Every structure is written in C-alpha cells, then in structure tokens.
Amino acid sequence: MKAKVEKAPKPKITLVELKKQRTLIIISLLLVAYGLVFYYWPLTGWLMAFQNYKPRLGLLHSEFIGLDKFKFLFADKVFLRVIRNTFCMGVINLVTTTFMAIFFALALNELRLRAPKKIIQTISYMPHFLSWIIVTGILHDSLSSTGIVNDLLLKLGLVDSPYPFFAKPNLFWGIVTFAQCWKETGFNAIVYLAAITAIDPCMYEAARIDGAGRLQQIKYVTIPSLMPTIVILLIMNIGNVLNVGFEVQYLLGNGLVQRVSQTIDIYVLNWGISQNDFSLGTAAGIFKSIVSIVLIVIFNNLSKKVGEEALF
Fold first, then answer.
1. Fewer CB in 10 Å around end: N or C, the chain?
2. Residue 4 pLDDT > 60
C-alpha cells in the first residue's frame, strides 16, 4: 500500500503575523498601487477606440460609434500591408537576434583567455546603450553613396557606380535586421552567458571522460541546459513581435521603400496622431495588444505540451 503523504498545514494569518510582515505588506501595497495607477488606469483610454473621440468633449461625452474604427482599419489596404510589414520584420528580428545572441554566448564561453573575453563582451554590449538616432546615423553614413561600404565595393571592382542601398525595397528588411542584431546581440547574450555559468561543471567533466570534444560538449551539455532559458525568453519576446520598432523604420525609410518600411506605429503616427484621429490610433494599439496576448498564450501552451518550461 502506498503511504499517505501528509500535506504541510497552511500558515494561519493572524494579527501577530501581519505585524511581523507589515514592512513587506506596505511595500507590496505600494507596488500594487503603482501598477494600478500607471498600468491599469491608463487602459480607460481604450474607450476612445469605440468613440468618435473629440478632445474638447473628453471620454465621457464623445459620440459612441462601436466597432467602426476597427472596421475602417481592416478595410484599409494600407493597414493590411502595414500588418504584413510589422509581422514579417518582427519574426525576422526575433529569430535572428535570438540565434545571434545564443551563438555569440556560446562562442564567448569557449574563449578561455579572461582578458580578451572581457574586452570583447564589453565592446559587444556597448551599442545597446546608443540611441537609435546614432545607430541609424552610422548605418546611413556607411551605406550612403559616399560611405565606406560603397567605397570598398568600388575599389574591389564589384560595382561600377555607388549602389543605392536605401532605394531597394528588397534590402530594407535585411538592413533593419542587421541594425537590430548589431545593437542588441551583445546585450542579449548576457542572459545566456549567465545561464551557462549556472551549468554544473561535473556535466562537462563527465562528457570529457566519455570522449566528447568541445563541439560535442556544446551540443550535448550546453545547449540542452540552455533550452529552458531559450524557451522562456522566446515566449516573452513572441509577444513583442508587433512591437518591432518605430525609430529605425522611420529614420531609415523613404518614399522609395515606403511599401515595406511602414509599421503599425508609423501608421498610427501618420493616420492617427497627425490627423487628430486618436480613436483610430487607439484601435490599432488594441489590435497589437490582443495579438500579443494571443501569441503568448498559444506559444506558452505549446511549450507545456512539448514538455518545456512555460510562463504560466
């Protein structure tokens, strides 16, 4: 017969216990209040999406129009194209930045010399702290007709005249992805490096005893140990697929690549804020939030079904 496992009794909430924990309770209540005021109270602004909002009338007196703004969005071919651009750039950026961060962390972990390792790591995550204005400025100068890239191509005889990188729609997503990788790879790799340091050294020692080389140790020890971290970060980042960005697309875009450069945020700026149609911009924001929640729930459940880590 199976022995019964007795459950530990739940601690009783008494006045004495509350007094002992009063400092933590007060801090918790302050954090809850902060969340309610700055995260949940602003959600009342979502009412604008269902109104013909007029700033002079406010939320309480603006005309209620139901789902008209949402119908307008999904009947607009420009908005559908913008969704395509945002989703494609978001997926490409998520895949490439995740892969590059993992690859860089693995490569840096294999570097045994401490001083070069610290120097490379420091240099790699410095771009994260640069604003997109500076990053896009560097990128624009490098790829311009008089930039270093075109100078090299001309000197090597690969082109006869400066190549117009920013006039080619088929190159724009690649340029944006390169900018994201260059800026964020070093910083994103910090999480994976921290996870690698938490791996039990005995596992590597056992692998070496079994004859595993360095590549085999990465394949059979490091990567499997990193999978929980990779999965959790993917689930968290999948919700930001439609938050692909605003600055880089806005600063690098132009009329020649407009069909592939516009994102939902740029659409909101052009057709919501600039035209004083705040209801339209709010409707687009609600659409992004709903899609993000749905993606997180779907991939979280998929992760649980395949036996990996999950957020909830």
1. N
2. no
